[in-house]
Amino acid sequence: MKLLIVDDMKSFLDLERTFLRRADCQVFTASTGLEAIKVAQKVRPDLAMLDIEMPEMNGIEAMRIFSATPSLKHIPVVICSSLPKKDEALAAVAVEFIQKPVDEDQYIEIIQRYIPLKVRRDVRRPFNAPCVMRTDGQTLSCTLSDVSVSGLFVRTSHPIQVGDKVGLRFSIPMKHGDKEIQAEGIAVRAMPSGLGIGFSDISEGARLFIQEFVEG
Predict the structure, then answer these.
(1) Which of 58, 46, 41 lies closest to 6, judged by CA?
(2) Roughly what angle, to the nearest 10 degrees, separates helices 10-19 and 104-112?
(3) 50 within 8 A of 39, measured Cβ to Cβ
(4) Distances (CA, A) of 184 to 12, 24, 176, 213
(5) DSSP 3-state helix, strand, coil percentages of the chain (rounded to 5)?
(6) What average pLDDT score do residues 71-77 get?
(7) Segment holding 2, helix H or strand E
(8) Would you give the end-to-end CA distance of the chain in angstroms?
(9) Sheet harboring 96-99: ordered strands across?
(10) Average per-residue pLDDT in the chain?
(11) Which residues have a Cβ under 8 Å from the Cβ of 162 and sit 6 or more positions away?
């Protein structure tokens, strides 16, 4: 599967890539509607996710070109925007409109309506342990609930929102002593019981230690 995600905000592109970290697909990106058309003509994605407000050419204009181009018109386009322009998006032949903010579950569910995207389910290990989280220049204490090779779930009273970037530091018990793990993550799911965080930057070594802990 090939997926094209288009947004001029790097923070949202990072969030979308994190949503797709467990998905069996190739992810291509663009930051303007004009770039989206160029990339789509080259890679022929199975689905395109477009923002509306972008420089050079907005998502609505790009989608109209998609639908008028024989080699692109078969590609389903989902508009994902913070602007309340659902009617305009659907009138321009979008198959779906998502109002930002959006969380991981909603994002994946909508994609799977249009393409058979496979998402692996990582083994999660319950793990009640302290964690230090950095966000917006603050260092916060929180508590881990579980961990997997792709992310973790924490309990915290701090009002972190989906899309917020966080730094993480925690330790996992190994045979020869605790192993400190440091990683960067993005909040992908907010629930009353806590916060789901997907790893966006973690060393392969740290990931292997987590895998050994989870499977041990």
Answers:
(1) 58
(2) 70
(3) no
(4) 15, 22, 25, 19
(5) 25, 40, 35
(6) 94
(7) strand 2-6
(8) 33
(9) 26-30, 2-6, 47-50, 77-81, 96-99
(10) 94
(11) 15, 101, 102, 103, 187, 188, 189, 190
Q: How is residue 32 written in tokens?
A: 């303007």
Residue 177 token pair: 């002593």
**d(C-alpha 102, C-alpha 91), whole Å:** 22
In 10 A of CB 175, how many CB atoms? 7
Mean pLDDT of 175-199: 93
Taking CB atoms within 8 Å and a gap of at least 24, the contacts of 53-60 are 53/8, 53/81, 53/83, 54/6, 54/7, 54/8, 55/8, 55/31, 56/32, 57/32, 57/33, 58/33, 59/6, 59/33, 59/89, 60/85, 60/88, 60/89, 60/92
d(CA 216, CA 66): 49
In degrees, to the nearest 5, what angle opens at C-alpha 63 toward C-alphas 61 and 69? 105
Q: Tell me the C-alpha distance between 83 and 99, whole Å.
A: 7
- What is the mean predicted confidence (pLDDT) over 97-102? 91
Mean pLDDT for 114-141 is 93
Structure tokens at 5: 């995600």
Q: What is the DSSP track for 38-75? A: HHHHHH--SEEEE-SS-SSS-HHHHHHHHHHSTTTTTS
